Structures are given as C-alpha cells and as structure tokens.
Amino acid sequence: MTTKKITNVGGDDAPQQRPAFVATAEAKAQAKQFRLYAAILWILAIVAEIGAMVILFKKDPEIALSTGMRVALIVILLIDLILLIAGSSFWKKSNRFDPASNRDALKFMLQNQLGVVVAAIAFLPVVILAFIKKEYLVGAIAALFMVGGGAASADYHAPSQEQYSQQTSRVQDLTGGNNVYWTKSGTKYHIYQDCPHINTSRTDEIFSGTVAKARELKNITELCKTCEARAEKEKALKGGAGVQSQPIALPDANAKPEKK
C-alpha cells in the first residue's frame, strides 16, 4: 500500500445515481381515474356535511333536537364518514400508480396525506357548530368520526419515486432484470417463482410483473429475504465462474540452463 497522498477527483469510482422512477402512461392514466373517483366522493362527503350544518344552523341553542332529528343528523354524519374513507382509499391507490417525489417534503406530505386534510374539512365545522348549538352528543360523534376518518385516510406506507427506484434497482442488481412474483394474500414480492414461501400447496396462483406493479396492485413494499439471499449467492457463484484460471508454467527438468 502506498504512503503517498491520494486525491480523489471523481470518475468511475464516484457513486452512481439511480435512475429516477417515471410512471408509465398507463399507470398515470389509472392514477388520474382514481383521483377523479376520490374527488367525486370527497365532494359528496362535503355535501353531506353541508346538509348536517343546515340542520344545526336552524336549531335554537336553547331547544334540544327531537330524537328523530338527532338520529337523522348522526346518519348524515355516518354517510359523510363512509364517503370520506371511500374517497381516501381511491386517493391512496392513485399515489401507488403515480407516486410523488420526496425531495419536496411539503408537496410529498400533502399528496400522500390529503385524505387527512379532507377529513378535517368534512367534520371540523360540524363539530364546532354542534357545540355552539349545544348539541354535545352530535358534536362528540362528529369529532369521533373526524379522528377515525383521518386515521383511516392516512397513508402509513406512503410511496415515493425514490423508493420505487431503489427497490427496482435492487432487483435489477440481483437479477439483471425487473421481474418479481407475488401472491394474492402475500406481503412480500419474490425473485423466484419456486420460492418455498409462495410455491406451496396453499397457493393457487402466482402473479408476475415489475416491482412497480407489485406496489401498484398489492402495495407490497418488501423483497423476500430468502429470495434475496439466494440471488446474492447465485450472483457470487456466477461471478466466480466468470474468472478463468490461467495455467501455471512449470519449469522443464530437462531444459538446459540459459547461458549468461
């Protein structure tokens, strides 16, 4: 090893940037459709909220609502909740087909957690108005629906372009391609279709596609560790086999010594 100063000026040893993930035209079209469904359902949820607020606006704070009217109000809020969660489900699916980049933290958060924002919009005004009008039971239920709807609308495994790129690059590094396998109820994608975790008597069907497809269709975020270890071992063996050993020239015992 040299004792001289080494100055790194870049070049082949510089870290390679992973190619940025770009959703296909088909995936973007599917995401657009899901976002449209989400927007329609969220608008209907806000319409239900407005209906509940109209009832509360007309109420005299000193006169309690009738039991029938209170039940009707709670039913409207329940419809509001169902529409909110259904819309959020479509929105989260759309983000799996066309994920945001996490380089812009604010945009990334808003795109992935928009359902939580809509939950506040769809219930908070009702909560405030219900307590102003002294309908404490309705206000408490609306608050409970807001919290529950927000929790159901949050994306706890928010996808990002960088994550897709990293996961795809890992599979390509191990296999040289971008094809994985998964099952209907599985939680991991696999490199090998004969992996013992999916090639069992309990498995009726194995799906195949890209890493992005596994995320889009099943929201699978993790590579099977068994497949990963097997692929690393096979890759190492192939690398070793590719190095051809050179024959060693042995001295000839009958050769005459070279004259100097």
Description:
Helices cover 58% and strands 5% of the residues. It folds into two domains: 25-153; 161-237, no CATH class. It has eight helices and four strands. The protein has helices at 25-58, 67-97, 105-112, 114-132, 136-153, 161-175, 211-218, 225-241; strands at 180-183, 188-189, 206-209, 222-223. The strands form two sheets. Strands 1-3 form a two-stranded antiparallel sheet. The protein has a two-stranded parallel ribbon with strand order 2-4. With 260 residues, the protein is mainly α.
What structural class do helix, strand and pairing data support? mainly alpha
Low-confidence stretches: 4-8, 10-16, 240-260
- Give the mean pLDDT: 84
How many distinct folded domains? 2
Descriptive labels:
single chain; 260 residues; mainly alpha; 2 domains; two-stranded parallel ribbon; 8 helices; 5% strand; disordered C terminus
Secondary-structure blueprint:
Layout: H1 25-58, H2 67-97, H3 105-112, H4 114-132, H5 136-153, H6 161-175, E1 180-183, E2 188-189, E3 206-209, H7 211-218, E4 222-223, H8 225-241
Parallel strand pairs: 2-4
Antiparallel strand pairs: 1-3
Helix pairs in contact: 1-2, 1-4, 2-4, 2-5, 2-7, 4-5
Concise summary:
With 260 residues, the protein is mainly α.
